[in-house]
Design goal:
By secondary structure, the protein is of the alpha+beta class. The protein has ten helices and 26 strands. Helices cover about 30% and strands about 30% of the residues. A hairpin with a 2-residue loop joins strand 10 and strand 11.
Length: about 450
């Protein structure tokens, strides 16, 4: 996705104002972007798709704004000097029906309607359908949300509820602060008839699930496992990296869970069905809070670091909690690995954008981590993992950063071992398992 993200400035904060009316109904919205120029700017771009543009100002003065595909090209009345702070405000009419389709695990993304509101699925590059943004997985900024809802509806967003004001007409203005910088693909804002279910996790961590009213009893049993999942993961990855956590139950038929920061989205079917499947999805999205959210990817070809870790620990947990055995799952992935390489590219080298969220980035990338564990041993592998998330917490990193850190912790150069696993056309032999064989590749 080479056109996503823009140079010339860094964003210090986004402030989003949404005046919600009804499902699938356009509504008034504005985005204020506080930024700093990293070069002299006579114009600059924002990622912004669809939505009816009303007015753009820079530092309170009207600016020229022209659409160029998914780019909004803004020309301020006066050039912005290098190092200059500036504020952009974009007023528009938001369209909560905007979606795009992918042929991989993402499926539909953007705005996802629910019976009485919406949830957001911005991954990978759908945030631009929701608000004007500098949309790249390596770029993060704090976000303030102001969401006005009609009587009877609630709103939730990443982070902490800092204010809830009821107006004389019954409308409510909800203000949330993300508390941490957040990447555009991890933004969440949901509206609906919600119950807010509070709890406490390890070390007093505030937990709050957000559940459509009719789904509270049916989803309770699996949602109640979050504290246990946190404890299990903290033993392996270190302290949970954010100030709060919760599960947002999506009242939608879209069968996709998503790791939006500090508030993971789980479709209702995930939490109303089989416990083993539910726990796999709950653990997977929770792992992402460490790897993918706190430790972000530098570019989309590094996605294996995010999805591979989430699938690795999901499979490891499930293997001791009623699911398929961990080694059995890894052997199955090994047998299919050459086919996945052929179809979708190597783990760290997707063959195209269309093949990004394919099985290779999930089980195929978890297998790379399994191979590393077999190579260096469990104790060294565990030290690598904890060092990975503690060293790079709050930063965006890439594949070579992981190879270098693993080599340093292991006390041996692992680049010659990991490079064929990450980039090669064929799957290397699995350490400790000389009898494992990839299946023949079918064209």
């Amino acid at each position: 996705m080479p056109l996503d993200g823009n140079g010339g400035y860094t964003v210090r904060r986004y402030t989003l104002d949404f005046d919600w009316t009804a499902p699938r109904t356009p509504f008034a919205a504005s985005t204020t972007i506080d930024a700093t120029a990293t070069q002299a700017l006579s114009r600059f771009d924002l990622d912004f798709a669809g939505n009816a543009l009303r007015e753009v100002t820079v530092d309170g003065t009207p600016a020229r704004a022209v659409r160029d595909g998914d780019e909004l090209v803004v020309t301020p009345a006066r050039p912005i000097p290098h190092g200059g702070a500036f504020t952009v405000r974009v007023d528009y009419t938001a369209d909560p029906t905007l979606q795009r389709h992918r042929g991989d695990a993402i499926a539909e993304y953007g705005w996802v309607p629910t019976p009485d509101g919406t949830v957001l699925y911005p991954q990978p590059d759908g945030a631009k359908m929701i608000f004007p943004v500098n949309d790249h997985p390596s770029l993060r900024a704090p976000v303030t949300f102001h969401i006005t809802t009609p009587p009877g509806l609630g709103a939730v967003a990443n982070g902490k509820l800092v204010e809830r004001v009821r107006r004389p007409d019954g409308h409510v203005r909800w203000t949330y602060d993300s508390e941490h910088p957040v990447a555009a693909q991890l933004i969440q804002m949901a509206i609906g008839k919600f119950a807010f279910v509070a709890g406490t996790g390890p070390h007093g961590l505030p937990l709050q699930d957000v559940v459509p009213d009719g789904l509270v009893p049916g989803t309770k049993a699996y949602r109640a496992l979050t504290s246990e999942h946190l404890t299990w993961l903290e033993r392996r990855l270190g302290p949970y990296p954010f100030r709060r956590y919760g599960v947002l139950v999506a009242d939608t038929d879209l069968p996709v869970a998503l790791e939006t920061q500090s508030l993971s989205v789980l479709p209702r079917a995930d939490l109303l069905g089989d416990r083993i499947d539910a726990e796999r999805n709950l653990v997977h999205e929770l792992v992402h809070q460490w790897t993918g959210d706190s430790v972000a990817v530098r570019r989309w070809s590094d996605l294996w670091l995010s999805e591979g870790h989430a699938r690795f620990y999901e499979r490891l947990y499930s293997g001791t909690h009623g699911g398929d055995g961990f080694e059995s799952a890894m052997r199955t992935a090994y047998e299919r690995h050459d086919q996945w390489r052929h179809d979708d590219g190597a783990p760290a080298e997707p063959s195209s954008d269309a093949h990004l969220f394919k099985q290779m980035r999930y089980d195929g990338s978890a297998l790379v981590l399994y191979a590393l564990r077999e190579k260096v041993g469990e104790q060294t592998f565990d030290r690598i993992e904890r060092s990975w998330v503690t060293t790079y917490q709050g930063r965006a990193v890439g594949t070579q950063d992981f190879v270098a850190l693993a080599s340093g912790v292991a006390g041996q150069d692992l680049s010659a071992f990991l490079t064929p696993w990450l980039y090669g056309a064929r799957t290397p032999p699995m350490p400790g398992h000389p009898d494992w064989r990839p299946d023949p590749v079918q064209d």
